[in-house]
Amino acid sequence: MTMTPSLPGPLAAVVSEFQEVQGQDKLRLLLEFADDLPALPAELEEAAMEPVPECQSPLFLHVDAGDPERVRLYFSAPAEAPTTRGFAAILATGLDEQPAGDILAVPDDFYTELGLAALISPLRLRGMSAMLTRIKRRLRDS
Question: Which segment of the chain is annotated as a signal peptide (predicted)?
Fold first, then answer.
């Protein structure tokens, strides 16, 4: 198991999980993540969230950097967009409650280490990059 030093522990664990499976099992793992995307808290509505137009499916995110040592990330994606939900769930699992500095240090192309490029179109993969870019922009602006 190779740990990438620039990734926060939980995100490194997700990357490692993907590296341990091959071929279609990677897609199955992505769909498992999609099923586990946390629901939005009651007080947060999609209308108050930032859309990520680069994603092929409707995706909204909210970054709560009130405590820079424990940044909260919220995502909303429709059930009929499992790839987008999977990407959001990977970021939620790997980066929610991490320090802002650690999130900002994540390489923009970390998702290449998931090994999904052969299975998912570059356009869809760019959606994950766009989510991370927007999270980082919010952190820099806060």
Answer: none
